[in-house]
Amino acid sequence: MRLDHHRVVITAAGRDFGRTLALRLAELGAEVFLSARTLAAAERVRDEISDRGRVHAFACDLTDAASIRDFASRVASHTDRVDVLINNGARYLEGPALQSASDADVVDTVASGATGTILVTKSFLPLLLNSEKPDVITMVSACGTAGHQRSDAHDAFYAAKSAQAGFTEILSRRLRPQGVRVISLYPPDFDNADPLAEEWETAPRGAKDALTAQSLVECILFAVTQPRDCFIKSFHFEQV
């Protein structure tokens, strides 16, 4: 599954699964436009990738509409199209007690996950519509699934993920006639091995093991490399 002719935007790629996506997709030939809240964080990942593929680094604060618009504008100065937008950014907030988080933490969590996803998609839609193979991938979470109760995430995180789920559901219907596939992933907690470490190849992936970042990357690759008549709307995962 090569991505040699794909131009991919990834939000929140300065660490964790966003970094994993950036590293792996660049290795598979994609030209990657990655963002992180700070430019320094984005550039650290860019420097890890620079000898492995084509990559550009940008700052983007998903809680700031002006920052999101600036990110999209800067990407547009490098390319006339985006083939894949990966909405990976969303702040995690832990704590099952509503009172355990400050008001500022609640605002930041909901803004980055819900409002940020909407505004990033809105800002990049013109570039996506210039592509012959536009896909919007959103990393939601099992917390965005109705009735899910197994996470110790804060209520605000549940709210942000539920908002992402509702947004992608209606967006899928409304963008499909324009040829845009909207694909959502709903993973539970998963193991994210370092793609540059030996453990990436040796991580256990049996039926009784936790879901891995490797499998999530492979789901994304499978979805975006299908013919355009194959529209995989979402991936849901059983939790071990």
TrEMBL record:
Top enzyme category: oxidoreductase
Q: Gene3D superfamilies given for it?
A: NAD(P)-binding Rossmann-like Domain (3.40.50.720)
Q: Check the record and name the CDD domains matching this protein.
A: SDR_c
One GO molecular function term of this record is: oxidoreductase activity
Reported EC number(s) for this entry are 1.-.-.-
Please give the Pfam families that the UniProt record associates with this protein: adh_short
Keyword field: Oxidoreductase
Q: Which family does it belong to?
A: Belongs to the short-chain dehydrogenases/reductases (SDR) family.
Q: What is this protein called?
A: SDR family oxidoreductase
